[in-house]
Specification:
single chain, about 325 residues, alpha/beta, Rossmann fold, 8-stranded mixed sheet, 14 helices, epoxide hydrolase activity
């Protein structure tokens, strides 16, 4: 589907690019779709089409670092509290009060903070591929050591490459190789050539290619490629910001309990965001439903029907 994009200055000097389809009546809520790395609002194309046809409102911004949204090179500007403030300003601009917040991958970070900072603006929360983890300080080396012990490989080893100063240039210079690996037809490929420390730069420097997943059409591929070539460093700043714990001062006193209903979709073939990592989330969520799909990481693109229908059935259940 073709998206009609709009822009809004959420605060002085900071603009957000977004797609918005208004709900067709007051009884239908609006979804706030937050994409992950290194996607754009385009990754929600199947959901926007489906839910807008059902009469729901759909709001999908490009987050900081993406498209025509404000994309600073300074990692310290990528604070989650600031992003939530930007999203609230966008909702106010569109006269939207409460929304169903939906996040995928990195988009789950601002989605979760949206709920924690503004529970009164939230109807419910949908997390895709990445489940709920309470705000906490991160020690990347400790994370890698623990995952090696538990999983047998470092599922977040690629973070080491993403925080390096030359990562953006290497990705831009080998963009087809990068997309192939992210969207490989072989779900086990990432476990070997993406996740462990040192493997992704090896893949890229050798210009390796593989067969892409069939759900990514030529149009999807062209859109994704153009997005990456607009500049990788702002997108990688999400990782740098997390590694350097720039959110901790804002978040250390946040109540981590989520009081609204939460739906979590997880892919059993996702070797990076492994389902077991989020086993502890139910202690923070009173009303949690978990749906496992036999798929990889890009669930809303690989299994759009299951995601769309799963969300709709759940909305009807929670009323």
């Amino acid at each position: 589907m073709m998206f009609k994009t709009q822009n809004y200055e959420v605060t002085k000097g900071i603009n957000y690019e977004y797609v918005y389809v208004q709900a067709n009546n007051d009884l239908k809520p609006t979804f706030l779709f937050l994409h992950g790395f290194p996607s754009t609002f385009y990754s929600w194309r199947h959901q926007i089409k489906y839910f807008s046809e059902q009469g729901y409102g759909c709001l999908a911004p490009n987050l900081m670092g993406y498209g025509k949204t404000y994309s600073p090179l300074n990692k310290d500007e990528y604070k989650l509290k600031s992003m939530v403030t930007h999203l609230i300003a966008l909702l106010n601009h569109l006269h939207l009060n409460k929304v169903i917040v939906v996040g995928h991958d990195w988009g789950t970070a601002p989605a979760i903070r949206f709920v924690l900072y503004n529970p009164e603006r939230t109807l419910s929360l949908v997390l895709i591929s990445v489940g709920y983890r309470p705000p906490a300080k991160m020690d990347l080396d400790q994370v890698l050591e623990t995952s090696k012990k538990i999983l047998g490989y470092e599922n977040f080893g690629y973070w080491k490459f993403f925080e390096s100063d030359d990562a953006a240039t290497i990705i831009e210079n080998n963009v087809d190789s990068f997309i192939d690996l992210l969207f490989s037809n072989n779900s086990g490929e990432k476990k070997i050539n993406f996740a462990p420390v040192g493997k992704i730069q090896e893949w890229l420097m050798n210009g390796q290619r593989t067969i892409r997943a069939s759900y990514m059409t030529e149009d999807d591929y062209a859109n994704f490629r153009e997005n990456l070539l607009e500049g990788m460093q702002p997108k990688l700043n999400w990782y740098k910001a997390a590694i350097e714990n720039i959110n901790w001062d804002d978040e250390k006193n946040l109540d981590p309990i989520i009081k609204c209903p939460v739906l979590f979709f997880t892919g059993t073939k996702d070797s990076v965001c492994v389902t077991a990592l989020f086993a502890g989330q139910k202690q923070y969520i009173a009303d949690l439903e978990v749906v496992e799909l036999e798929a990889g990481h890009w669930l809303m693109e690989e299994k759009p029907n299951e995601i769309n229908q799963g969300i709709e059935h759940w909305i009807k259940r929670i009323g």
